[in-house]
Amino acid sequence: MTTMTDWLLDDSPTSRVQASLGRGYRMIRLLMRNPLAVIGAVILLTLIFAAVFAPWIAPHSPLGQNLSQRLLPPSSTHWMGTDELGRDIFSRVIYGARITLMIVALVAVIAAPLGLLIGAVSGYFGGWTDKVLMGVTDVFLSMPKLILALAFVAALGPGIENAIIAIAITSWPAYARIARAETLTFRNAEFISAMRLLGASHARIITGHVLPLCTSSMIVRVTLDMAGIILTAAGLGFLGLGAQPPLPEWGAMISRGRAFILDQWWVATMPGFAIIVVSLGFCFLGDGLRDVLDPKQGGKS
Amino acid sequence: MTAISLKNLDISYGPTKVVEAASFDVAEGESFALVGESGSGKSTILKAIAGLAPDWTGEITVLGQPRGHSVDHGFASRCQMVFQDPYGSLHPRKSVDRVLSEPLKIHGISNRDARVEDMLAAVGLDRRFRFRYPHQLSGGQRQRVAIARALMLEPKVMLLDEPTSALDVSVQAEILNLLKKLRREQGLTYLMVTHNLPVVSFMCDRMAVMHKGRIVEIAPASALHDGRFQDPYTQSLYAASGGNPDRKD
Q1: Angle at Cα A21 formed by Cα A20 and Cα A24, nearest 5°?
Q2: What residues are paired with B25 via a beta bridge?
Q3: What integer pLDDT is reported at residue B51 of this predicted model?
Q4: Most exposed: A157, A294, B41, B63, by fewest CB within 10 Å?
Q5: What was the pLDDT predicted at A46?
Q6: What radius of gyration, in Å, describes the C-alpha atoms of chain B?
Q7: Which segments does the entry list as coiled coil (chain A) (predicted)?
Protein backbone atom coordinates (compact mmCIF):
# COMPACT_ATOMS: atom_id res chain seq x y z
CA MET A 1 0.00 0.00 0.00
CA THR A 2 2.79 2.44 0.87
CA THR A 3 4.58 1.64 -2.37
CA MET A 4 1.35 2.35 -4.22
CA THR A 5 0.99 5.74 -2.50
CA ASP A 6 4.65 6.52 -3.09
CA TRP A 7 4.23 5.66 -6.73
CA LEU A 8 1.19 7.93 -6.99
CA LEU A 9 2.84 10.84 -5.17
CA ASP A 10 6.20 10.51 -6.93
CA ASP A 11 7.56 13.98 -7.68
CA SER A 12 9.12 12.77 -10.89
CA PRO A 13 6.62 10.46 -12.56
CA THR A 14 8.03 8.32 -15.31
CA SER A 15 4.97 8.05 -17.53
CA ARG A 16 1.90 9.99 -18.58
CA VAL A 17 -0.40 7.57 -16.76
CA GLN A 18 1.47 7.91 -13.51
CA ALA A 19 1.45 11.71 -13.75
CA SER A 20 -2.29 11.97 -14.29
CA LEU A 21 -3.13 9.30 -11.72
CA GLY A 22 -0.95 11.14 -9.23
CA ARG A 23 -2.84 14.35 -9.91
CA GLY A 24 -6.15 12.60 -9.41
CA TYR A 25 -4.97 10.96 -6.21
CA ARG A 26 -3.81 14.30 -4.77
CA MET A 27 -7.22 15.82 -5.54
CA ILE A 28 -9.11 12.96 -3.92
CA ARG A 29 -6.90 13.24 -0.85
CA LEU A 30 -7.62 16.96 -0.61
CA LEU A 31 -11.32 16.29 -1.03
CA MET A 32 -11.27 13.66 1.69
CA ARG A 33 -9.98 16.22 4.16
CA ASN A 34 -13.23 18.16 3.88
CA PRO A 35 -15.86 16.37 6.01
CA LEU A 36 -18.83 18.07 4.33
CA ALA A 37 -17.56 17.05 0.90
CA VAL A 38 -17.26 13.48 2.10
CA ILE A 39 -20.86 13.58 3.37
CA GLY A 40 -21.94 14.95 0.00
CA ALA A 41 -20.02 12.26 -1.86
CA VAL A 42 -21.54 9.56 0.36
CA ILE A 43 -25.06 10.88 -0.29
CA LEU A 44 -24.47 10.89 -4.04
CA LEU A 45 -22.92 7.45 -4.01
CA THR A 46 -25.97 6.22 -2.10
CA LEU A 47 -28.21 7.85 -4.71
CA ILE A 48 -26.31 6.17 -7.53
CA PHE A 49 -26.32 2.86 -5.67
CA ALA A 50 -30.08 3.12 -5.06
CA ALA A 51 -30.71 3.97 -8.70
CA VAL A 52 -28.61 1.11 -10.06
CA PHE A 53 -29.84 -1.58 -7.67
CA ALA A 54 -33.43 -0.33 -7.28
CA PRO A 55 -35.08 -3.68 -8.16
CA TRP A 56 -33.07 -5.45 -5.45
CA ILE A 57 -33.38 -2.78 -2.77
CA ALA A 58 -37.04 -1.88 -3.11
CA PRO A 59 -39.19 -4.28 -1.07
CA HIS A 60 -42.31 -3.72 -3.18
CA SER A 61 -43.18 -2.78 -6.73
CA PRO A 62 -43.16 1.00 -7.25
CA LEU A 63 -46.25 0.81 -9.44
CA GLY A 64 -48.26 -2.09 -8.02
CA GLN A 65 -51.45 -0.82 -6.41
CA ASN A 66 -53.11 -2.36 -3.41
CA LEU A 67 -56.23 -0.42 -2.54
CA SER A 68 -56.82 -2.35 0.69
CA GLN A 69 -53.55 -0.89 2.07
CA ARG A 70 -53.93 2.74 1.06
CA LEU A 71 -52.51 5.58 3.16
CA LEU A 72 -50.91 3.38 5.79
CA PRO A 73 -48.49 5.18 8.14
CA PRO A 74 -44.80 4.16 8.20
CA SER A 75 -44.37 0.68 9.69
CA SER A 76 -41.99 -2.27 9.49
CA THR A 77 -43.58 -3.55 6.24
CA HIS A 78 -43.93 -0.11 4.63
CA TRP A 79 -40.94 1.91 5.91
CA MET A 80 -42.27 5.19 4.57
CA GLY A 81 -45.93 4.27 4.56
CA THR A 82 -48.17 3.90 1.51
CA ASP A 83 -49.86 6.42 -0.74
CA GLU A 84 -53.47 6.87 -1.81
CA LEU A 85 -53.28 3.89 -4.19
CA GLY A 86 -51.61 1.60 -1.66
CA ARG A 87 -48.17 1.80 -3.27
CA ASP A 88 -45.12 1.50 -1.03
CA ILE A 89 -43.58 4.99 -0.78
CA PHE A 90 -40.09 3.69 0.10
CA SER A 91 -40.00 1.64 -3.10
CA ARG A 92 -41.21 4.63 -5.08
CA VAL A 93 -38.55 6.88 -3.59
CA ILE A 94 -35.89 4.30 -4.45
CA TYR A 95 -37.09 4.05 -8.04
CA GLY A 96 -37.46 7.83 -8.12
CA ALA A 97 -33.68 8.03 -7.64
CA ARG A 98 -33.35 6.66 -11.18
CA ILE A 99 -35.47 9.44 -12.63
CA THR A 100 -33.72 12.13 -10.61
CA LEU A 101 -30.31 10.82 -11.58
CA MET A 102 -31.32 10.65 -15.23
CA ILE A 103 -32.61 14.22 -15.21
CA VAL A 104 -29.48 15.52 -13.51
CA ALA A 105 -27.10 13.61 -15.74
CA LEU A 106 -28.84 14.50 -18.98
CA VAL A 107 -29.14 18.18 -18.10
CA ALA A 108 -25.44 18.23 -17.20
CA VAL A 109 -24.52 16.44 -20.42
CA ILE A 110 -26.55 18.82 -22.58
CA ALA A 111 -26.19 22.15 -20.83
CA ALA A 112 -22.61 22.17 -19.52
CA PRO A 113 -20.75 21.43 -22.79
CA LEU A 114 -23.04 23.78 -24.71
CA GLY A 115 -22.48 26.63 -22.26
CA LEU A 116 -18.77 25.88 -22.05
CA LEU A 117 -18.30 25.96 -25.80
CA ILE A 118 -20.37 29.11 -26.39
CA GLY A 119 -18.64 30.92 -23.53
CA ALA A 120 -15.15 29.90 -24.59
CA VAL A 121 -15.70 30.84 -28.25
CA SER A 122 -17.23 34.13 -27.21
CA GLY A 123 -14.43 35.03 -24.82
CA TYR A 124 -11.64 33.82 -27.09
CA PHE A 125 -12.63 35.69 -30.23
CA GLY A 126 -14.15 38.79 -28.61
CA GLY A 127 -15.50 41.53 -30.86
CA TRP A 128 -18.65 40.80 -32.83
CA THR A 129 -18.71 37.08 -32.06
CA ASP A 130 -18.74 37.97 -28.39
CA LYS A 131 -21.48 40.58 -28.79
CA VAL A 132 -23.80 38.27 -30.73
CA LEU A 133 -23.30 35.20 -28.54
CA MET A 134 -23.56 37.11 -25.29
CA GLY A 135 -26.68 38.89 -26.59
CA VAL A 136 -28.36 35.54 -27.08
CA THR A 137 -27.13 34.43 -23.67
CA ASP A 138 -28.55 37.57 -22.06
CA VAL A 139 -31.96 36.92 -23.61
CA PHE A 140 -32.06 33.50 -21.98
CA LEU A 141 -30.64 34.80 -18.70
CA SER A 142 -33.22 37.56 -18.43
CA MET A 143 -36.08 35.12 -17.94
CA PRO A 144 -36.72 33.28 -14.69
CA LYS A 145 -35.65 29.67 -15.00
CA LEU A 146 -38.83 27.95 -13.93
CA ILE A 147 -41.05 30.24 -16.00
CA LEU A 148 -38.96 29.65 -19.13
CA ALA A 149 -38.94 25.91 -18.48
CA LEU A 150 -42.72 26.07 -18.01
CA ALA A 151 -43.10 27.85 -21.34
CA PHE A 152 -40.96 25.24 -23.11
CA VAL A 153 -42.79 22.33 -21.55
CA ALA A 154 -46.11 23.94 -22.40
CA ALA A 155 -44.95 24.25 -26.00
CA LEU A 156 -43.37 20.79 -26.25
CA GLY A 157 -45.98 18.97 -24.21
CA PRO A 158 -45.62 17.51 -20.71
CA GLY A 159 -43.27 14.59 -20.15
CA ILE A 160 -39.95 13.81 -18.58
CA GLU A 161 -37.90 14.16 -21.81
CA ASN A 162 -39.36 17.57 -22.53
CA ALA A 163 -38.75 18.63 -18.94
CA ILE A 164 -35.08 17.66 -19.35
CA ILE A 165 -34.78 19.61 -22.59
CA ALA A 166 -36.51 22.61 -21.04
CA ILE A 167 -34.24 22.61 -18.00
CA ALA A 168 -31.14 22.21 -20.17
CA ILE A 169 -32.21 25.14 -22.35
CA THR A 170 -32.63 27.32 -19.30
CA SER A 171 -29.39 26.40 -17.57
CA TRP A 172 -26.71 26.78 -20.25
CA PRO A 173 -26.50 30.61 -20.21
CA ALA A 174 -25.01 30.68 -16.71
CA TYR A 175 -22.29 28.26 -17.83
CA ALA A 176 -21.60 30.31 -20.93
CA ARG A 177 -21.10 33.37 -18.75
CA ILE A 178 -18.66 31.58 -16.46
CA ALA A 179 -16.70 30.09 -19.34
CA ARG A 180 -16.49 33.47 -21.03
CA ALA A 181 -15.30 35.23 -17.87
CA GLU A 182 -12.75 32.50 -17.30
CA THR A 183 -11.55 32.68 -20.91
CA LEU A 184 -11.19 36.46 -20.79
CA THR A 185 -8.72 36.17 -17.93
CA PHE A 186 -6.22 34.27 -20.03
CA ARG A 187 -7.07 34.91 -23.68
CA ASN A 188 -4.07 37.24 -23.95
CA ALA A 189 -1.82 35.07 -21.82
CA GLU A 190 1.54 34.21 -23.26
CA PHE A 191 0.87 30.48 -23.30
CA ILE A 192 -2.00 31.12 -25.72
CA SER A 193 0.19 33.40 -27.88
CA ALA A 194 2.91 30.76 -27.83
CA MET A 195 0.44 28.22 -29.20
CA ARG A 196 -0.60 30.62 -31.97
CA LEU A 197 3.05 31.07 -32.88
CA LEU A 198 3.51 27.32 -33.04
CA GLY A 199 0.89 27.29 -35.77
CA ALA A 200 -2.05 25.91 -33.78
CA SER A 201 -5.50 26.63 -35.23
CA HIS A 202 -8.15 28.50 -33.27
CA ALA A 203 -10.20 25.32 -32.90
CA ARG A 204 -7.21 23.48 -31.49
CA ILE A 205 -6.43 26.25 -29.03
CA ILE A 206 -10.03 26.48 -27.83
CA THR A 207 -10.54 22.75 -27.36
CA GLY A 208 -7.04 21.86 -26.23
CA HIS A 209 -5.94 24.86 -24.21
CA VAL A 210 -8.85 27.12 -23.32
CA LEU A 211 -11.51 24.57 -22.38
CA PRO A 212 -9.35 22.55 -19.96
CA LEU A 213 -8.82 25.72 -17.93
CA CYS A 214 -12.56 26.43 -17.79
CA THR A 215 -13.66 22.93 -16.84
CA SER A 216 -12.72 23.02 -13.17
CA SER A 217 -14.85 26.06 -12.37
CA MET A 218 -17.52 24.54 -14.59
CA ILE A 219 -17.56 21.24 -12.68
CA VAL A 220 -17.93 23.15 -9.43
CA ARG A 221 -20.73 25.27 -10.79
CA VAL A 222 -22.58 22.34 -12.34
CA THR A 223 -22.38 20.38 -9.09
CA LEU A 224 -23.73 23.33 -7.14
CA ASP A 225 -26.46 23.84 -9.75
CA MET A 226 -27.56 20.20 -9.53
CA ALA A 227 -29.59 21.06 -6.44
CA GLY A 228 -31.40 23.76 -8.42
CA ILE A 229 -31.95 21.40 -11.35
CA ILE A 230 -33.47 18.77 -9.07
CA LEU A 231 -35.73 21.40 -7.56
CA THR A 232 -36.78 22.70 -10.99
CA ALA A 233 -37.48 19.16 -12.15
CA ALA A 234 -39.45 18.49 -8.98
CA GLY A 235 -41.25 21.79 -9.48
CA LEU A 236 -42.25 20.82 -13.01
CA GLY A 237 -43.29 17.40 -11.72
CA PHE A 238 -45.32 19.06 -8.98
CA LEU A 239 -47.10 21.20 -11.52
CA GLY A 240 -47.87 18.10 -13.56
CA LEU A 241 -45.61 19.14 -16.46
CA GLY A 242 -42.69 16.84 -15.76
CA ALA A 243 -42.88 13.12 -15.20
CA GLN A 244 -46.36 11.76 -15.78
CA PRO A 245 -48.14 9.24 -13.54
CA PRO A 246 -47.48 6.53 -12.66
CA LEU A 247 -43.74 7.34 -12.86
CA PRO A 248 -42.41 7.66 -9.30
CA GLU A 249 -40.90 11.12 -9.76
CA TRP A 250 -40.33 12.87 -6.42
CA GLY A 251 -41.94 16.19 -7.38
CA ALA A 252 -45.02 14.46 -8.77
CA MET A 253 -45.24 12.36 -5.61
CA ILE A 254 -45.28 15.47 -3.44
CA SER A 255 -47.94 16.91 -5.68
CA ARG A 256 -50.15 13.85 -5.13
CA GLY A 257 -49.48 13.90 -1.41
CA ARG A 258 -50.51 17.51 -1.08
CA ALA A 259 -54.15 16.47 -0.89
CA PHE A 260 -53.50 14.48 2.29
CA ILE A 261 -50.77 16.63 3.82
CA LEU A 262 -52.62 17.28 7.09
CA ASP A 263 -53.88 13.77 7.85
CA GLN A 264 -51.31 11.57 6.08
CA TRP A 265 -48.18 13.74 6.31
CA TRP A 266 -45.79 10.99 5.16
CA VAL A 267 -47.13 10.86 1.61
CA ALA A 268 -45.68 14.28 0.74
CA THR A 269 -42.88 14.41 3.31
CA MET A 270 -40.90 11.31 2.31
CA PRO A 271 -40.17 12.31 -1.30
CA GLY A 272 -39.62 15.89 -0.13
CA PHE A 273 -37.06 14.62 2.32
CA ALA A 274 -35.33 12.72 -0.48
CA ILE A 275 -35.16 15.90 -2.58
CA ILE A 276 -33.65 17.86 0.29
CA VAL A 277 -31.04 15.22 1.11
CA VAL A 278 -29.91 14.83 -2.48
CA SER A 279 -29.81 18.59 -3.07
CA LEU A 280 -27.74 19.03 0.07
CA GLY A 281 -25.44 16.25 -1.07
CA PHE A 282 -24.76 18.06 -4.34
CA CYS A 283 -24.20 21.36 -2.51
CA PHE A 284 -21.73 19.84 -0.06
CA LEU A 285 -19.83 18.07 -2.79
CA GLY A 286 -19.82 21.23 -4.92
CA ASP A 287 -18.37 23.25 -2.06
CA GLY A 288 -15.69 20.66 -1.49
CA LEU A 289 -14.85 20.48 -5.19
CA ARG A 290 -14.54 24.25 -5.31
CA ASP A 291 -11.86 24.13 -2.65
CA VAL A 292 -9.97 21.45 -4.56
CA LEU A 293 -10.44 22.56 -8.15
CA ASP A 294 -10.44 26.34 -7.82
CA PRO A 295 -8.03 27.50 -10.51
CA LYS A 296 -6.70 30.21 -8.21
CA GLN A 297 -5.49 27.53 -5.85
CA GLY A 298 -4.55 24.97 -8.48
CA GLY A 299 -1.03 26.30 -8.82
CA LYS A 300 -0.29 26.12 -5.11
CA SER A 301 -1.61 22.70 -4.25
CA MET B 1 21.54 36.06 -46.51
CA THR B 2 19.67 38.20 -44.04
CA ALA B 3 17.63 36.39 -41.44
CA ILE B 4 15.38 39.30 -40.53
CA SER B 5 14.97 42.48 -42.50
CA LEU B 6 12.72 45.38 -41.49
CA LYS B 7 12.08 48.30 -43.80
CA ASN B 8 10.24 51.39 -42.68
CA LEU B 9 8.16 49.51 -40.18
CA ASP B 10 5.37 51.45 -38.44
CA ILE B 11 3.37 49.63 -35.79
CA SER B 12 0.29 50.95 -34.03
CA TYR B 13 -2.04 49.78 -31.32
CA GLY B 14 -5.36 51.30 -32.34
CA PRO B 15 -4.83 55.03 -32.95
CA THR B 16 -1.46 55.25 -31.16
CA LYS B 17 1.67 54.72 -33.16
CA VAL B 18 4.08 52.70 -31.06
CA VAL B 19 6.96 52.20 -33.48
CA GLU B 20 7.91 54.54 -36.30
CA ALA B 21 10.08 53.91 -39.33
CA ALA B 22 12.09 51.05 -37.89
CA SER B 23 14.61 49.56 -40.32
CA PHE B 24 17.41 47.12 -39.68
CA ASP B 25 18.84 43.87 -41.00
CA VAL B 26 19.94 40.88 -38.98
CA ALA B 27 22.36 38.56 -40.76
CA GLU B 28 21.92 34.81 -40.55
CA GLY B 29 23.66 33.45 -37.49
CA GLU B 30 23.94 36.86 -35.93
CA SER B 31 22.77 37.80 -32.46
CA PHE B 32 21.13 41.19 -32.53
CA ALA B 33 19.84 43.15 -29.54
CA LEU B 34 17.08 45.71 -29.28
CA VAL B 35 17.80 47.97 -26.35
CA GLY B 36 15.82 50.77 -24.80
CA GLU B 37 13.79 51.83 -21.83
CA SER B 38 10.33 50.50 -21.00
CA GLY B 39 7.70 51.55 -23.51
CA SER B 40 10.20 52.35 -26.26
CA GLY B 41 8.56 49.80 -28.56
CA LYS B 42 11.19 47.07 -28.59
CA SER B 43 8.87 44.21 -27.61
CA THR B 44 6.30 45.49 -30.08
CA ILE B 45 8.75 44.97 -32.94
CA LEU B 46 9.18 41.34 -31.87
CA LYS B 47 5.43 40.90 -31.69
CA ALA B 48 4.98 42.34 -35.17
CA ILE B 49 7.58 39.95 -36.58
CA ALA B 50 5.90 37.06 -34.78
CA GLY B 51 2.47 38.11 -36.04
CA LEU B 52 0.99 39.00 -32.67
CA ALA B 53 0.74 42.73 -33.41
CA PRO B 54 -0.97 42.68 -36.82
CA ASP B 55 -1.49 46.42 -37.22
CA TRP B 56 1.66 47.45 -39.06
CA THR B 57 2.81 48.95 -42.35
CA GLY B 58 6.18 48.63 -44.03
CA GLU B 59 8.05 45.48 -44.86
CA ILE B 60 9.11 42.52 -42.76
CA THR B 61 11.17 39.77 -44.34
CA VAL B 62 12.19 36.65 -42.48
CA LEU B 63 14.72 34.31 -44.14
CA GLY B 64 14.00 35.85 -47.50
CA GLN B 65 10.22 35.46 -47.29
CA PRO B 66 7.95 38.45 -46.79
CA ARG B 67 5.91 38.21 -43.63
CA GLY B 68 2.11 38.36 -43.63
CA HIS B 69 0.10 40.25 -41.07
CA SER B 70 -1.08 37.30 -39.03
CA VAL B 71 0.22 34.12 -37.52
CA ASP B 72 0.75 31.40 -40.11
CA HIS B 73 1.41 27.70 -40.04
CA GLY B 74 4.54 27.52 -42.19
CA PHE B 75 6.20 30.46 -40.49
CA ALA B 76 6.09 28.54 -37.21
CA SER B 77 8.84 26.14 -38.20
CA ARG B 78 11.18 28.93 -39.28
CA CYS B 79 10.83 31.45 -36.49
CA GLN B 80 9.86 31.05 -32.84
CA MET B 81 9.64 33.27 -29.82
CA VAL B 82 10.56 32.94 -26.14
CA PHE B 83 8.53 35.11 -23.81
CA GLN B 84 9.58 37.21 -20.90
CA ASP B 85 7.57 35.67 -18.10
CA PRO B 86 8.14 31.93 -17.64
CA TYR B 87 5.23 31.90 -15.19
CA GLY B 88 2.78 33.12 -17.82
CA SER B 89 4.08 31.35 -20.88
CA LEU B 90 3.38 27.76 -19.81
CA HIS B 91 -0.11 26.31 -19.63
CA PRO B 92 -0.75 25.71 -15.91
CA ARG B 93 -2.53 22.38 -16.45
CA LYS B 94 -0.17 20.73 -18.92
CA SER B 95 2.85 18.66 -18.08
CA VAL B 96 6.24 19.39 -19.63
CA ASP B 97 5.73 16.39 -21.88
CA ARG B 98 2.41 17.72 -23.22
CA VAL B 99 3.87 21.20 -23.75
CA LEU B 100 6.76 19.82 -25.79
CA SER B 101 4.71 17.28 -27.77
CA GLU B 102 2.07 19.83 -28.78
CA PRO B 103 4.12 21.58 -31.52
CA LEU B 104 5.00 18.16 -32.96
CA LYS B 105 1.34 17.15 -32.99
CA ILE B 106 0.31 20.40 -34.69
CA HIS B 107 2.80 19.82 -37.46
CA GLY B 108 2.24 16.08 -37.66
CA ILE B 109 5.80 15.17 -36.82
CA SER B 110 6.29 11.57 -35.71
CA ASN B 111 8.76 10.00 -33.30
CA ARG B 112 7.60 12.40 -30.60
CA ASP B 113 8.91 10.48 -27.59
CA ALA B 114 12.51 10.52 -28.74
CA ARG B 115 12.35 14.14 -29.86
CA VAL B 116 11.00 15.29 -26.51
CA GLU B 117 13.71 13.40 -24.66
CA ASP B 118 16.43 14.81 -26.90
CA MET B 119 15.16 18.33 -26.47
CA LEU B 120 15.02 18.01 -22.67
CA ALA B 121 18.64 16.92 -22.75
CA ALA B 122 19.56 19.79 -25.07
CA VAL B 123 18.16 22.43 -22.71
CA GLY B 124 19.72 20.76 -19.69
CA LEU B 125 16.60 19.37 -18.02
CA ASP B 126 16.78 15.98 -16.38
CA ARG B 127 14.43 13.25 -17.67
CA ARG B 128 12.57 13.18 -14.38
CA PHE B 129 11.12 16.61 -15.12
CA ARG B 130 9.33 15.30 -18.18
CA PHE B 131 5.97 14.54 -16.59
CA ARG B 132 5.94 17.38 -14.09
CA TYR B 133 3.51 20.27 -14.16
CA PRO B 134 4.69 23.89 -14.30
CA HIS B 135 3.89 24.49 -10.63
CA GLN B 136 6.40 21.80 -9.76
CA LEU B 137 9.20 23.67 -11.56
CA SER B 138 11.33 26.65 -10.62
CA GLY B 139 11.44 29.82 -12.72
CA GLY B 140 14.66 28.83 -14.42
CA GLN B 141 13.36 25.35 -15.20
CA ARG B 142 10.17 26.83 -16.63
CA GLN B 143 12.18 29.10 -18.89
CA ARG B 144 14.18 26.09 -20.08
CA VAL B 145 10.89 24.39 -20.94
CA ALA B 146 9.74 27.51 -22.80
CA ILE B 147 13.01 27.57 -24.77
CA ALA B 148 12.66 23.86 -25.49
CA ARG B 149 9.11 24.39 -26.77
CA ALA B 150 10.33 27.13 -29.12
CA LEU B 151 13.07 24.86 -30.43
CA MET B 152 10.86 21.80 -30.96
CA LEU B 153 10.16 22.72 -34.58
CA GLU B 154 13.86 23.41 -35.23
CA PRO B 155 13.45 27.04 -36.24
CA LYS B 156 16.40 29.02 -37.56
CA VAL B 157 15.39 32.37 -36.10
CA MET B 158 14.58 32.93 -32.43
CA LEU B 159 12.89 36.03 -31.06
CA LEU B 160 13.79 36.46 -27.41
CA ASP B 161 11.65 38.89 -25.41
CA GLU B 162 13.70 39.68 -22.30
CA PRO B 163 14.18 35.98 -21.65
CA THR B 164 15.93 36.46 -18.33
CA SER B 165 14.45 39.59 -16.78
CA ALA B 166 11.89 37.67 -14.70
CA LEU B 167 14.56 35.40 -13.20
CA ASP B 168 16.95 35.98 -10.35
CA VAL B 169 20.57 36.73 -11.06
CA SER B 170 22.20 33.31 -10.69
CA VAL B 171 19.50 31.69 -12.84
CA GLN B 172 19.85 34.47 -15.43
CA ALA B 173 23.44 33.46 -16.01
CA GLU B 174 22.44 29.81 -16.49
CA ILE B 175 19.77 30.68 -19.04
CA LEU B 176 22.08 33.06 -20.93
CA ASN B 177 24.76 30.40 -21.09
CA LEU B 178 22.18 27.92 -22.33
CA LEU B 179 21.02 30.32 -25.05
CA LYS B 180 24.60 30.94 -26.08
CA LYS B 181 25.32 27.23 -26.25
CA LEU B 182 22.17 26.51 -28.28
CA ARG B 183 23.02 29.24 -30.76
CA ARG B 184 26.48 27.82 -31.28
CA GLU B 185 25.22 24.23 -31.64
CA GLN B 186 22.23 24.86 -33.88
CA GLY B 187 23.43 27.90 -35.81
CA LEU B 188 20.49 30.02 -34.66
CA THR B 189 19.86 33.68 -35.32
CA TYR B 190 18.79 35.65 -32.27
CA LEU B 191 16.81 38.85 -32.14
CA MET B 192 16.78 39.73 -28.49
CA VAL B 193 14.95 42.44 -26.61
CA THR B 194 16.53 43.56 -23.37
CA HIS B 195 17.12 46.61 -21.23
CA ASN B 196 20.13 45.04 -19.63
CA LEU B 197 23.36 46.22 -21.29
CA PRO B 198 25.63 43.56 -19.71
CA VAL B 199 23.39 40.92 -21.30
CA VAL B 200 23.97 42.58 -24.67
CA SER B 201 27.73 42.57 -24.32
CA PHE B 202 27.61 38.90 -23.26
CA MET B 203 25.20 37.62 -25.90
CA CYS B 204 25.07 39.88 -28.91
CA ASP B 205 27.09 41.03 -31.89
CA ARG B 206 25.20 44.21 -32.65
CA MET B 207 22.54 46.32 -31.02
CA ALA B 208 19.85 48.81 -32.01
CA VAL B 209 18.97 51.45 -29.45
CA MET B 210 15.34 52.52 -29.34
CA HIS B 211 13.87 55.66 -27.89
CA LYS B 212 10.20 56.68 -28.03
CA GLY B 213 9.39 54.27 -30.84
CA ARG B 214 12.34 55.17 -33.05
CA ILE B 215 15.64 53.46 -33.58
CA VAL B 216 18.17 56.12 -32.69
CA GLU B 217 21.34 54.18 -33.29
CA ILE B 218 22.65 50.83 -34.49
CA ALA B 219 26.03 50.02 -33.01
CA PRO B 220 28.29 46.99 -32.62
CA ALA B 221 28.20 45.44 -29.16
CA SER B 222 31.88 46.30 -28.83
CA ALA B 223 30.84 49.92 -28.43
CA LEU B 224 29.75 48.94 -24.93
CA HIS B 225 33.43 48.49 -24.06
CA ASP B 226 34.77 51.75 -25.38
CA GLY B 227 31.61 53.85 -25.11
CA ARG B 228 31.80 54.97 -28.76
CA PHE B 229 28.17 55.93 -29.29
CA GLN B 230 27.05 58.69 -31.63
CA ASP B 231 23.58 59.53 -30.41
CA PRO B 232 23.14 61.67 -27.27
CA TYR B 233 20.32 59.40 -25.99
CA THR B 234 22.50 56.32 -26.33
CA GLN B 235 25.29 58.08 -24.49
CA SER B 236 23.01 58.97 -21.61
CA LEU B 237 21.65 55.40 -21.51
CA TYR B 238 25.19 54.10 -21.46
CA ALA B 239 26.18 56.49 -18.70
CA ALA B 240 23.05 55.66 -16.67
CA SER B 241 23.83 51.96 -16.80
CA GLY B 242 27.28 52.61 -15.32
CA GLY B 243 29.47 52.67 -18.42
CA ASN B 244 31.51 49.66 -19.47
CA PRO B 245 29.64 46.63 -18.16
CA ASP B 246 32.78 44.50 -18.00
CA ARG B 247 34.72 47.01 -16.00
CA LYS B 248 35.36 45.80 -12.47
CA ASP B 249 35.23 48.50 -9.85
Answers
A1: 90
A2: B5
A3: 86
A4: A157
A5: 93
A6: 18
A7: none
Instruction: Say if B86 is an interface residue toward chain A (CB within 8 Å).
Output: no
Q: Are strands B16-27 and B31-36 parallel, antiparallel or unpaired?
A: unpaired
Whether chain A has a CB inside 8 Å of the CB on B75: the answer is yes
pLDDT score for A299: 43
Total number of domains constituting chain A: 1
**Chain B residues in contact with A292 (beta carbon < 8 A):** none
Q: Superfamily for B2-89+155-240?
A: P-loop containing nucleotide triphosphate hydrolases (3.40.50.300)
Chain A positions touching B80 (Cβ under 8 A) are 197-198
Pairing of strands B206-211, B65-66: unpaired
Write out residues in chain A with pLDDT < 70, as ranges. 1, 294-301
Query: Do residues A135 and A176 lie in contact, with contact meaning Cβ atoms separated by under 8 Å?
Result: no
pLDDT of residue B247: 57
Domain that holds residue A191: 36-62+78-298
Name the residue of chain A whose CA is nearest to B84's CA.
Answer: A190
Distance CA A80, CA A73 (A): 7
> What 8-state DSSP symbol labels residue A82?
B
Pick the residue of B102, B117, B126, B145 with the most A CBs within 10 A to test the interface with A by mutation: B102
**Residue ranges of domains in chain B:** 2-89+155-240
CA distance B130 to chain A (A): 8
Pairing between strand B157-161 and B79-82? Answer: parallel
Closest partner CB to B129 (pick from A12, A23, A198): A12
Residue A197 belongs to some domain of the structure: yes
Residue B102: its chain A contacts at CB < 8 A? Answer: 195, 198, 200, 208
pLDDT < 70 positions in chain B: 243-249
Asked if the Cβ–Cβ distance from A300 to B146 is below 8 Å, we say no
Looking up residue A98, the CATH number of its domain turns out to be 1.10.3720.10
Of A11, A12, A198, the CB nearest to B103: A198
Residue type for position A184 = L
Locate the chain A residue with the closest alpha carbon to B147.
Answer: A194
Answer whether residue A9 is part of any domain.
no
Q: What is the pLDDT of residue B100?
A: 93
Instruction: Report ipTM for this prediction.
Output: 0.86
Residue B53: what pLDDT?
Answer: 82
Please indicate whether, in this complex, the C-beta atoms of B133 and A190 are within 8 angstroms of each other. no
pLDDT confidence of residue A301: 38
Q: Is B107 on the interface with A (CB under 8 A)?
A: yes
Nearest to A15 by CA among B193, B116, B249: B116
SS3 content of chain B, % helix, strand, coil (to 5): 35, 25, 35
Burial pattern B210-247, b for ≥16 Cβ within 10 A else e, equals bbebebbbebebebbeeeebebebbeebbeebeebbee
Residue A45 forms part of a structural domain: yes
First to last CA, chain B: 41
Angle (CA) A228 A230 A231, round 5°: 65
